[in-house]
Amino acid sequence: MTIVAQRPVCAGAQIKHLKRLEAESIGIMREVVAEFCNPVMLYSIGKDSTVMVHLARKAFFPARPPFPLLHIDTGWKFRETIAFRDAIARRLGLDLLVHANEEGRARGINPITSGSALHTAVMKTEALKQALDRYAFDAAFGGARRDEERSRAKERIFSARNAEHGWNPRNQRPELWRLYNTRLRDGESMRVFPLSNWTEQDVWEYIAAEEIDVVPLYFAALRPVVRRGDAWIMVDDERLPLEPGEHPEMRRVRFRTLGCYPLTGAIESAAATPAQIVAELRDTSRSERHGRLIDSDEEAAMERKKREGYF
Amino acid sequence: MSTAGSSVTRQHNKDLLRFLTCGSVDDGKSTLIGRLLYDCALIFDDQLAKLEQESRRFGTTGEDTDFSLLLDGLEDERQQRITIDVAYRFFATPKRSFIVADTPGHVQYTRNMATGASTSELAVILVDARKGVLPQTRRHAFICSLLGIREIVLAVNKMDLVGFEERSFDEIATRFSAFAAGLSKASIQAIPVVARFGDNVTARSARMPWYRGPTLLEHLHSVTVSSGDADRPFRFPVQWVNRPNGEFRGYCGTIASGTIAPGEEVLIVGSGRCSRVKEIVTFDGSLDRAQAGDAVTLTLETENDLARGDLLTDPAAPPEFVDQFAAHVIWLSEHPLVPGRSYLLKIGTRTVPATVTALKHRIDVNTLAHLADRTLELHEIGFCNLSTAAAVAFDPFEVNRDTGAFILIDRFTNQTAGAGMIAFGLRRASNLHWQALTVGREQRATVKEQRAAVLWFTGLSGAGKSTIADLAEKKLLAFGRHTMLLDGDNVRHGLNRDLGFTDADRVENIRRVGEVAKLMTEAGLIVLCSFISPFRAERRMVRELTAPTAFLEIFVDTPLDECMRRDPKGLYAKAKAGRIPHFTGLDSPYETPESPELRLTTVGTTPESVVEHILDELRRRNII
Q1: Mean pLDDT in each 10-residue stretch from start to end of chain B (624 residues)?
Q2: What topology does CATH give the domain A11-201+299-307?
Q3: ipTM score of the complex?
Q4: Alpha carbon distance B354, B332 (integer Å)
C-alpha cells in the first residue's frame, strides 16, 4: 500500500465542512447543559471521545466544560490508553470519574475465558448502568457516529432511555430540525451523540487540522502481535494466553478503533500521522469496525447491546 | 466487485447535499440507496461479504444481492423485510458530499419519515411503475413540501416490470405533476430507474433509450440548493448564558440567520431595548464576523439580563412577537390533538406552554382539500390557531426554517406530539392590551377578610363531589366567607350547553370553567368547583390559568364499585345499558391525580367529617 502524505485537494471546502460539523456538535452540547440537571461525558479514550472532549472545551469557552468525564474501566484496555486518559484529564483540568464493575471483577469475568459477549455485558454495559445510577446522571454524552455501524445509523441524536437504560428502537421519538425534545420522566435518562453526523474520515481530518493529541496506538509502529483469524491481536501484557505454536512477532501495525485489547484487531499500516491516516482511509476497502470482534458475534450484536443499555 | 476505488473518494467534502428517499412501501427506497452506494464503489469489502451472506438468509431477490439489507439496520427490519426508522448514510463522490436519509414507507412510521425530511434539502420520491402514484406517495410529497423541501426527484422504479415503456413513465410523471402543482414552489425532475439493476442510477440505461434526462447521480451532482441563511436578517437565539466568573457574561448560541460583527446593534426582542455586540468570543480567538450556522458566544456592550430563550435580532428587521399565530401542524402522536389542551411548545431555544385554540381545517393528503374537523389523529395534517402562555418571537417558516418551526410536546408522556410551521401571526395580542386596573384581586379579597382560592373537586360520577362541595360552601358561608360554587351539571345547562362528552368537548368544558373560576377569584371569592374533570392535563391547565391564586386539587377518591352502587342519578345503569357513550370510568378513562392537595375517602365516614378536613386545610393555608 502506498501512503500519500498530502492534504486533501480542496482544503477550503474541507475546512468549511468541518466547521459545520463542529458547530452542530457544539450546539448539541450546549443544549444538554442548558436543559439537563446532571450531565456527564463518557470518555472511552478513543479518537472519537477525544475529539468530543476537544469540542466540549470549545463549546463552553472561556468556562470549563460544566460536567465530569466518566470512564468505564473493563480492566482490559491497552496500557497506553490508561496512561493517556489520566494525562489528558490532568492537563485539561477536567473531573474524571473512573468506574469498574467490582462485582464482575471479583467473579473473574474476562474477555478470554468468559467470552466477549459476557465480558461486554458485565464489564461494559452493567458497569455503565451502575455508574449512571450511582451518580444519578440524567444525560450522558457518547462519541458514537452514525457511519460506524448500521444500528447506530438508526439512532437519534437525543436518544431517550427508560429507567433500566434500555433503548427502544421500535419507538424512537421523532426528532425534527434542530429542536431536540429533552423532557424526561423520573428515572429516565438521555443518551446524546454530538458526533452523530461525523464520519471516520471527518474525525481524522479534524484531528489533523486541530492538532489534537490521540493515543499513539492509532499510529503505525512495530508492535508484538499474533495472527487470529484475519486479525492481528496485540500482546499487550502477559494475560493474553498464547495458543500452541503461537509466537508474537513484531509487525508495523496500527488500530482503527480501540476496545478491550484481546477483542480489538490491528491492521498492517505505515500511517504514522493523522494526515497519513486520512490518505490511507481514502484507499481502504475495509470498514472501521471490521477489527472489532464483539460486533461480529451475532448479526444484530450492536442493536441488542444497545437495547440492554450499552452506548 | 471492485473495492472502494481510488477514483471515488468516500468522503471528499465538497459542498454538502442532504437528501432523503421516501415513497410508499416496497417501492424500493433502501434498494435504490444500496445500489447507489454499490455503483459508486462505496461499500467496504467486509460489509459486502456480510451483505451477501445476509441476502441468502433474509433477502427477497433470490440469488441476487439484496441491497436494501445495507440500510435496514434493525433486527426487526431485516426479519420483517421492511424499513421502520430512518437510516442515515454518508458518502461522497469527487463532485459532492451527501448525507442521505433512507425513510420508511409504511403509514404507521410516517413520523420517522418526517424526522428524515426535516433536515433534508432534496427528496427522492419513489414510485413503483406498476402501481403508480399512491396515497402514501402524495402524503410524502405533501410532507416534504410542508417541511420546506423545494427540490423533488420523482424516481419511477421497477421500469423493467412494465417493459421499459415510455408511456407508463409519462403517465406517472404527468399524474404526479398535476398533484404537485398544488404544493408550494417545488421543482420536479422525473427519472425512470431500475434500482435493483442500476438503470439510470449512476449509469445511463441502454434499455430506455427514449429517456434523455440526467441519471439520478448526475442530477444529485448538478442540482443547486441554497439556504441563503446568511443573507437574511440577523437572528440569534440565546441558548446558554456563560458566566465562568463575575467579569464575564457571554451569550452562547448558533446564529440562525444573517451575520454579525462587533459594534453592530442588536435588538433584544420583547424588551424593546437595543445593545451593541462587544465581542464574538470563540475558543480559537475572537472573530471579526460570524454568520448563519456558526456556534459562537456574544458579549454585549451594555449590561442586560438576558436568559435562555431570548432572541437577539437585527433592529431594522425585527421578527414578529405575539402570543397567537396560525401554523400548519403535522400530528405525530397516537393521542389525538385536542384543541384547548395544554402542550409545551419549543421554538428555537424557548419552551412555553401553548394550546391549539382552533383547528381551522384538516388537509386531505390525497386531494389537498380542506376539511372541517375537531381533532387531528396520528399523522394527520391541519392548519391551526395556537395561543402561547407568553409572547414568542418568530418569522414565518417560509422565510426562516430556524425561527419558524416548532415542536409540541405532550406534557404527560413527554413525547414529541406535533411538528409545526408558522404561517403568520394573529394580531390580536398586539391590538388587545390588558386594561391596567387600580383595584385588584388582593384588595377585593382583603375587604372580605379572606384570600381568594379555588377548591377543585375531582372524582368519578357519584363519588360525592357535589354533596361535599355543597356542604363545604354552607360551612364557609356560616363563617361569613364569600364563596361561589360551580357545578358540572349546572354549568352544562347554561354556559356549556353547546358541548357534549367527547374528549375534545370535555377539554373545552373545563377550559371555560377555568376562565370563569379565574374571574371569580379576581373578585376575591373562594370558588368551589365540582367537576369530574377526568384528564390530568386539564386540571393542570386550570391550576396554571388561575395562578397565582391558591389552587387546591381535592380528589374525592371513591372506588368505582361504590360509585356504581350509589348511582344517585341512575347514570351508571344507563351507561351500562349502552345509552350513554363516553362515560367516565366505564368506556372513557379517569386519570387519577398524582399529587392532589387533599385526597378524601368517602367510604365509612360522613360528609360532615370530610368537610372538617377541608376546613382544617384552608386554615392551615391561611385562606380562612
Answers
A1: 34 69 81 83 70 68 67 67 78 84 81 90 93 90 91 94 93 91 84 92 91 94 80 94 90 95 92 90 95 94 87 92 93 91 93 92 89 91 92 92 94 92 77 54 80 93 92 90 89 86 85 92 92 90 85 93 89 86 86 91 90 91 84
A2: Rossmann fold (3.40.50)
A3: 0.87
A4: 17
* CB neighbour burial string for A256-294, b if at least 16 within 10 angstroms, e if fewer: bbbbbbbbbbbbebebbebbbbbbbbbbbbbbbbbbbbb
Q: Which of B30, B120, B533, B588 is catalytic?
A: B533
Structural domain boundaries of chain B? 16-222, 229-313, 324-427, 442-620
- Mutation target to probe the B interface, by most B beta carbons within 10 A, among A138, A177, A180, A306 is A177
C-alpha grid cell, residue B4: 472502494
Task: State the cell numbers at A93.
Answer: 483540568
Write down the pLDDT at residue A151.
78
Q: Per-residue DSSP letters for B575-591?
A: HHTTSSSS-BTTTB---
- Rounded Cα gap, residues B368 and A6, in angstroms: 55
The question of whether B533 is a catalytic residue gets the answer yes
Architecture of domain B324-427: Beta Barrel (2.40)
CATH 3.40.50.300 fits B442-620, yes or no: yes
The residue extents of the domains of chain A are 11-201+299-307, 214-296
**pLDDT reported for residue B8:** 34
Taking CB atoms and an 8 Å cutoff, what residues of chain A touch B281? 61-62
Residue B431: its pLDDT value, please?
40
Instruction: Name the residue among A259, A264, A266, A288 with its Cα closest to residue A222.
Output: A266
Q: What is the pTM of this model?
A: 0.77
DSSP lists the bridge partners of residue B588 as B584
Q: Is B349 on the interface with A (CB under 8 A)?
A: yes
Scan for cell 431517550, then name that residue. Answer: A160
What is the secondary structure of B231-293 as a DSSP string? GSPPEEE--EEE-SSSS--EEEEE--BSEE-TT-EEEETTTTEEEEEEEEE-TT---S-EETT
3-state helix vs strand vs coil in chain A, percent to 5? 40, 15, 45
Query: Are the C-beta atoms of residues A132 and A140 closer than 8 Å to each other?
Result: yes
Q: Read off the C-alpha cell for A254.
A: 496500527
Contact A153 B88 (CB under 8 A): yes
